[in-house]
């Protein structure tokens, strides 16, 4: 379903349906924001606490809004219970994703 085509950055890969983003989530932060691009992942700060999936829901909502896609187009592929996650985002190209992340930094 989300077979990787090519990697633009170590944290970003384009698929047939969109992109897969590798991120490290920092829950219970003061605001929802892309914090920095690191070696192999993008750091995302989220205000929600990591309790009962609240941080995951907040992450999906933040990514959807920041990337201009519907919440239903964002899915956690790996890392539901950890800080390191692989997130699939449908309906956006890798170049557009990278541009939007860099603009937000």
What does this structure look like?
- With 105 residues, this protein is of the alpha+beta class.
- It is 24% helix and 40% strand.
- Strands 1, 2, 3, 4, 5, 6 and 7 form a 7-stranded mixed beta sheet that branches.
- A hairpin with a 2-residue loop joins strand 4 and strand 5.
Strand content: 35-45%
Overall pLDDT score: 92
Structural class: alpha+beta
Q: Nearest-angstrom radius of gyration?
A: 12 Å
Would you report the number of β strands? 7
Described by the principal axes of the CA atoms, the overall outline is globular
Task: Work out the helix count.
Answer: 2
- What's the end-to-end separation, in Å? 30 Å
Estimate percent helicity. 10-25%
> Biggest sheet, in brief?
7 strands, mixed
Low-confidence stretches: none
Order of helices and strands: EEEEEHEEH
Question: Quick recap of the structure?
Answer:
With 105 residues, this protein is α+β, with helices and mostly antiparallel strands. Helices cover 24% and strands 40% of the residues.
Could you outline the blueprint of secondary structure elements for this entry?
Layout: E1 4-9, E2 12-15, E3 18-26, E4 33-38, E5 41-45, H1 54-67, E6 74-78, E7 84-90, H2 94-104
Q: Which characteristics define this entry?
A:
alpha+beta, 7 strands, 40% strand, 24% helix, globular, 7-stranded mixed sheet, 105 residues
């Amino acid at each position: 379903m989300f077979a990787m085509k090519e990697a633009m950055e170590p944290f970003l890969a384009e698929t047939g349906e969109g992109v897969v983003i590798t991120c490290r989530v920092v829950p219970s932060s003061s605001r929802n924001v892309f914090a920095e691009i690191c070696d192999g992942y993008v750091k995302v700060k989220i205000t929600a606490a990591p309790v009962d999936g609240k941080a995951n829901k907040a992450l999906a909502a933040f990514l959807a809004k920041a990337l201009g896609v519907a919440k239903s187009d964002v899915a956690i592929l790996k890392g539901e219970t950890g800080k390191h996650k692989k997130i699939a985002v449908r309906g956006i190209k890798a170049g557009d994703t990278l541009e939007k992340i860099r603009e937000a930094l």
